[in-house]
Write a structure and sequence with these properties.
The complex is a heterodimer of chains A (280) and B (366).
Chain A (H helix, E strand, L loop, with lengths): L1 H4 L1 H29 L14 H7 L2 H34 L2 H17 L1 H12 L6 H6 L12 H25 L3 H9 L4 H29 L3 H6 L7 H12 L2 H31 L1
Helix pairs in contact in A: 2-13, 4-8, 4-10, 5-8, 6-8, 8-10, 9-10, 10-13, 12-13
Chain B lengths: L2 H13 L7 H6 L12 E6 L3 H9 L1 H8 L2 E6 L2 H10 L8 E5 H10 L2 E2 L1 E2 L23 E2 L2 E12 L23 E4 L6 H11 L8 H8 L3 E5 L2 H10 L4 E5 H9 L5 E3 L5 E11 L5 H11 L2 H11 L2 E2 L8 H4 L6 H5 L1 E3 L2 H25 L1
Parallel strand pairs in B: 1-2, 1-3, 8-9, 8-10, 12-14
Antiparallel strand pairs in B: 3-12, 4-12, 5-6, 7-10, 7-11, 7-12, 7-13
Helix pairs in contact in B: 3-12, 4-11, 6-15, 7-8, 7-15, 8-15
The chains are: A mainly alpha (280), B alpha/beta (366).
Amino acid sequence: MGASRRPLPGLLLLPSAVLLLVFLVLPLCATVWLSLEPNALVRFEGRGAGNYAYLAGRAYYLGVVARTFRLAAESTGIALLLGYPAALAMRAESERVAGTLSLLMTLPVLAGPLVVVLGWMILLSNGGPILGPLVRWGWIERVRWLGTETGILVGVVHFVLPFVVLSLASVVRSLPRPLLEAAQSLGAGPLTRFRLVVFPLALPGLVSAAVIAFSLSMSSFVAPHYLGGPADLTLTTLISQFVLATFNGQLAAAAATVLLVLMTVVIGAVTVGAARAVRA
Amino acid sequence: MIDLPCLSRRSALRLLGGAAGLGGTRLARAQPAPAIGTGGRLTVSTWGGITSDGIRDHVGPEFEKLTGAKLAFDIGGQGARYNKLLAQKGNPSADVFFGTDESVVGGLRAGVLQPTDQAAVPNFADVQPWAVSVKAPAAGQIAGVPYTMISYALAYDPTAVKTPPTSWGDLWRPEFAGKLAFAAAGHSQMPALVILAAELAGGSLTNIDLGFAKLAQLRPNKLTFFWTDWAPMLKTGDTVAATEFDYYLEAMKLQGYPIDYVFPTEGAIGSPELVAMVAGTKNRELAQVFMNLMIDPKVQEAFAVSTFQGPTNRKTQVPAAVAARMSYGDDKLKRVRFFDPVLCLDNRPAWTERMTTEVIPAWQSR
């Protein structure tokens, strides 16, 4: 009976597999293929890894890769630190309150990163409503947030936070209540309950939240573009500069491939590591 | 493969006596003949806001009257639109492309734009010689139509800056440090700014290193492509000086921004803007009518009055009050300097790279 059922799931997978192949794998292959071509800046014969050598041979571009990585790691860390307590707090609320909170939290996601970032552009500017009065009244020195890594961090964290909270909240809410009650009746305080029951059971949720946050941060473009400074290029803004400023599709493709490989490696490592931790 | 339906439609029309080949002669006589086999639509790839509004208001009605066809717009920054041309090479979605003279040189070289027969654009004979900065590949052809002349100038906030700037060298004034909006590495006028900086530092085109060293000493707090990139910062006082095109600055004045500007003593950067035909367009005749209209004296006058873009047709009459506010007239043009678009195009990849990897990091680290 089992054997006769097997072809059906396979068939059901077919449309999405074809979709993935056509809309994800083929464009990626095209990108990699393009990245092997010479261009106005990097000249070599035939196809080759010249563009990668060019990027790897310049401290500036290695700095861009490091910055992209650092910003993604920082925003993931901050979003998890802010998001975990929020998810725990939502668990304590009634269905209705939790539902409303989830809806409110998805608003920035629904509005899209551009709207969120434009808001931050106004808020973070020196003459803006937050820093403006403080500087004018002489309470603080002139600081610069807009056009710095701090600015990017603020925008990215704001954008990824709802994803973190929502994916954590769904896991935390589904934890079996009797387990926690049993822990409590055995004398475990809130911290011990969290450490011994909630955290290990919700670890898969934490990992998926971290993976989502990291990949969204690493591939975010709007926040680094609008909130970052001209020298704070990340891989995404670097790609856009190669494409839009010098029409250098080949170097852009090489940078895009680097971004993709880095993301895949990190996410793969985190997932494998977490799976081992859960098993242990 | 994508071309096939179009081809079959064309041949079908030919079979029906639709005579796709007749369109050109008919339209050249400016008869209101609907374009055959095209759906009667010309897609214009241009900048949004002032430029697309101007085209819609001042060219659209006349174009429709002459051809029976409508205008459609593909709006965006020049870089994004140019990339689209490259990506859609051979089967373009746009029929005419608006860009700087440098982009037209590049587009012709890359085969995404094509020259036009001058005879099909009769108004071209009246275009000022200084506006024709792009050489046509062959006699009897034009690379595109230089429909306007704008200048990249030095702007400042008169409420914050006591002594108005006079020279490009004033960009380095200490009072502008950290309060300057400056062209991004990928800006259309960047190569000209590199040359100007080199000259200010005692260098030249043959000693361009001095230009990058000089630019590295600037202290901009915003890199811009478009006036809206820095306009909000002007209002909050975060920016008090900027490099920007004169017609955008005039538009800002109309909107009440505290802004004034000068053509520096070394010359504002003159930028003839062209409209050129996209290679592979299926609307060649409509495109020629459109290009001819863009340099029609009446259209140019309306365009100038509403957008402050300087006309290039010598028969265009502009009211004196408006003329004073654009790149127009002998006196104004004496204070404008033109840069060879071929030179800018050839140096752009390497110079953008140097701006990105040498100059801009220096700005941030100081």
